[in-house]
Design goal:
The complex is a heterodimer of chains A (115) and B (114). Chain A has 115 residues and is an all-beta fold. Chain A has strands at 5-7, 10-13, 19-24, 31-37, 43-50, 53-57, 64-68, 74-78, 87-94, 105-106, 110-114. In chain A, the strands form two sheets. In chain A, strands 2, 4, 5, 6, 9, 10 and 11 form a seven-stranded mixed sheet that branches. In chain A, strands 1-3-8-7 form a four-stranded antiparallel sheet, with no helix packed on it. Chain A is globular and about 40 Å long. Chain A starts with a strand and ends with a strand. The model of chain A has no long low-confidence stretch (mean pLDDT 92). Chain B is built from no helices and eleven strands. Chain B has strands at residues 4-7, 10-14, 19-25, 29-37, 44-49, 55-58, 61-65, 71-76, 85-93, 102-104, 108-113. The chains are: A mainly beta (115), B mainly beta (114).
């Protein structure tokens, strides 16, 4: 158990809908990262938050948004869903962002299926 | 932007054979990390390399970081069925402002036949 909690584990929704994925980082971790993993694909970096502030952005679609709340949990909002958005969405956390020796601890992921 | 390429994409080996996956970055890295994802699981951190030319070993696994800090490799000696999974390298770009951006390679999917 990595200590990172993601909910829900599975989500099935229709095209055009909007969903929210939730992530609770490890206790004390200030950084939260979101990654998208499509079938047989690598991990595509979406966005990084540190202590409530956005710090880095990857190839995140405009239909997607995220935020990190004062209690450090994070939510990834996906709207106007398309079939191609079906993927495994991982959240990862780490203690800091500027330190060199920080590994990322991954949650179990949310499997999103858009039908 | 920064790109991290990993080869091969797939590797099938017989149990007992060796396995190597290679990782190349388009930019100089401050450090490189390796993760393993078991089928149906989530990525789990294996190791981090920071210094130019660094070599680290974990039992049957040997990790190397290139002199130019742009490439890395993971070598597994005498694979076992428990080694099955996808191995990812992930790098942080040296300098710049996106300290938090950990860019992953596409991963190498390892299959071990008993």
């Amino acid at each position: 158990d990595s200590g990172v909690t993601q909910t829900p584990k599975h989500l099935i929704t229709a095209t055009g809908q909007r969903v929210t994925l939730r992530c609770s980082p490890r206790s004390g971790d200030l950084s939260v990262y979101w990654y998208q993993q499509s079938l047989d694909q690598g991990l595509q970096f979406l966005i990084h938050y540190y202590n409530g502030e956005e710090r880095a952005k990857g190839n995140i679609l405009e239909r997607f948004s995220a935020q990190q709340f004062p209690d450090l949990h994070s939510e990834l909002n996906l709207s106007s869903l398309e079939l191609g958005d079906s993927a495994l969405y991982f959240c990862a956390s780490s203690p800091t962002v500027f330190a060199r020796n920080t590994e990322a601890f991954f949650g179990q992921g949310t499997r999103l299926t858009v039908v | 932007g920064q790109q991290v390429m990993q080869i091969p994409q797939y590797q099938h080996v017989q149990e007992g054979e060796d396995f190597t996956t290679y990782c190349n970055s388009s930019t100089t890295l401050s450090n490189i990390q390796w993760y393993k994802q078991r089928p149906g699981g989530h990525p789990v951190f294996l190791i981090q390399l920071v210094k130019s030319g660094e070599v680290k070993k974990q039992k049957r696994l040997t990790f190397q970081f290139g002199e130019a800090k742009k490439n890395s490799s993971l070598h597994i000696t005498a694979t076992q069925t428990t080694d099955v999974g996808t191995y990812f390298c992930a790098g942080r770009r040296a300098g710049g402002t996106s300290y938090g951006k950990l860019t992953f390679g596409q991963g190498t999917i390892l299959t071990v036949h008993p």
